[in-house]
C-alpha cells in the first residue's frame, strides 16, 4: 500500500482580511456566492492577496486538483493499493475515497471543494467520498497513517532512484510518501520530524504533478508488477 499525502496544500477559503476587497466581492458576485464561501485562487484574486502573509505561494487549488486526478486515475488506485490524503496550510485534512469520480474540469472541482468546506462530507455520511476534518494535528495524522516508512520529497533530499527505493522496501505493508502542495518554499508542518527518508529525484525544481506521477509509476513498477 502507498499512502500519498499532499502536505501543506495551499487550499483555503478566502481569508476574512481580504473578503471586502473589490476583486473578491466581484468574483463572489459573479459566481452567486458569499465571499466567505469561495476558495482563495491566485489566478483570480492576485490583486487582493498581497496583504496576506506568504501571499506568493497561497491560493493554489489547481495543485490539489491535479494531485487528486493523478492519484484517483492511477492504475495503483484502481488496484486498491493507494490511499490519497490532502493536508492544508490551515490543518484541514481531506480524506479521498478511492471510488471518488473527481470532476475533470477545474471550475467544477472548485465548486465541489467549496461545498466540502461547508458540509465537511460529500455526498453523505452513508457514502462518504470526500471527508474534511478541521484542525488536525500533523503528528496525530502520522500516527493514524501508521506507515512502515515515511518518504519525504524535497529538493534538498538525498538523490535516489524511486524504482530502486520501492524495490528495496517491497515487503513494507504501507509506505507514506509526502509531497508539498505549494508552488515555492518549504513545508510548514513538521514533516521532517516523521521522515524515514528525505529524498530528491531530480537536481532541478519539478512541478508537484510531475513528482506525484514519478512516485506512483515507480511504485507500480517496483511493487505492483514485481
Overall description:
The chain has 226 residues and is of the alpha/beta class. The chain has 2 domains: 1-11 and 59-226, SPOUT methyltransferase, trefoil knot domain (Alpha/beta knot, 3-Layer(aba) Sandwich), CATH 3.40.1280.10; 16-57, no CATH class. Helix content is 35%, strand content 22%. It contains 8 helices and 8 strands; from the N terminus they run E-H-H-H-H-E-E-H-E-E-H-E-H-E-E-H. A hairpin with a 4-residue loop joins strand 2 and strand 3. Helix 3 (61-72) runs parallel beside helix 8 and helix 7 crosses helix 8. The chain is globular, with a radius of gyration of 18 Å. The chain starts with a strand and ends with a helix.
What's the arrangement of secondary structure elements?
Elements: E1 2-9, H1 22-31, H2 42-49, H3 61-72, H4 75-78, E2 82-88, E3 93-96, H5 106-119, E4 121-123, E5 128-133, H6 138-145, E6 149-159, H7 162-168, E7 175-180, E8 197-200, H8 208-224
Parallel strand pairs: 1-2, 1-7, 6-7, 6-8
Antiparallel strand pairs: 2-3, 3-5, 4-5
Structure in a nutshell:
This protein is α/β, with parallel strands linked by helices and 226 residues long. The chain contains eight helices and eight strands, in the order βααααββαββαβαββα. It is globular.
Major sheet summary line: 8 strands, mixed
Order of helices and strands: EHHHHEEHEEHEHEEH
Q: Taking strands numbered 1, 2, ... along the chain, how are they ordered across the largest sheet? A: 4-5-3-2-1-7-6-8
Number of helices: 8
Q: Output the CATH topology of the largest domain.
A: Alpha/beta knot
Q: What's the structural domain tally?
A: 2
Radius of gyration: 18 Å
State the fourth-level CATH superfamily of the largest domain: SPOUT methyltransferase, trefoil knot domain
The SS-based structural class is alpha/beta
CATH architecture of the largest domain: 3-Layer(aba) Sandwich
Please tell me the overall pLDDT.
97
In total, the number of strands is 8
Classify the beta-strand content into a percent band.
15-25%
CATH classification, class level of the largest domain: Alpha Beta
Amino acid at each position: 500500500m502507498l499512502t500519498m499525502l499532499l502536505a501543506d496544500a495551499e487550499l483555503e477559503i478566502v481569508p476574512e482580511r481580504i473578503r471586502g476587497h473589490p476583486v473578491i466581492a466581484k468574483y463572489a458576485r459573479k459566481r452567486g456566492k458569499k465571499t466567505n464561501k469561495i476558495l482563495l485562487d491566485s489566478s483570480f484574486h492576485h490583486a487582493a492577496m498581497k496583504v496576506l502573509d506568504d501571499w506568493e505561494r497561497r491560493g493554489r487549488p489547481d495543485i490539489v486538483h491535479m494531485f487528486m486526478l493523478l492519484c484517483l486515475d492511477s492504475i495503483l488506485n484502481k488496484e486498491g493499493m493507494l490511499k490519497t490524503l490532502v493536508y492544508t496550510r490551515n490543518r484541514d485534512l481531506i480524506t479521498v475515497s478511492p471510488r471518488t469520480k473527481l470532476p475533470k474540469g477545474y471550475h467544477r472541482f472548485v465548486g465541489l471543494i467549496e461545498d466540502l468546506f461547508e458540509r465537511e462530507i460529500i455526498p453523505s455520511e452513508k457514502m462518504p467520498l470526500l471527508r474534511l476534518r478541521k484542525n488536525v494535528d500533523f503528528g496525530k495524522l502520522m500516527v493514524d497513517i501508521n506507515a512502515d516508512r515515511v518518504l519525504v520529497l524535497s529538493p534538498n533530499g538525498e538523490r535516489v532512484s524511486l524504482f530502486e527505493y520501492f524495490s528495496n522496501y517491497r515487503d513494507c505493508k504501507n509506505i507514506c510518501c509526502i509531497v508539498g502542495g505549494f508552488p515555492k518554499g518549504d513545508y510548514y508542518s513538521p514533516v521532517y520530524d516523521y521522515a524515514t527518508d528525505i529524498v530528491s529525484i531530480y537536481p532541478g525544481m519539478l512541478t508537484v504533478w510531475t513528482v506525484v506521477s514519478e512516485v506512483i509509476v515507480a511504485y507500480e513498477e517496483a511493487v505492483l508488477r514485481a
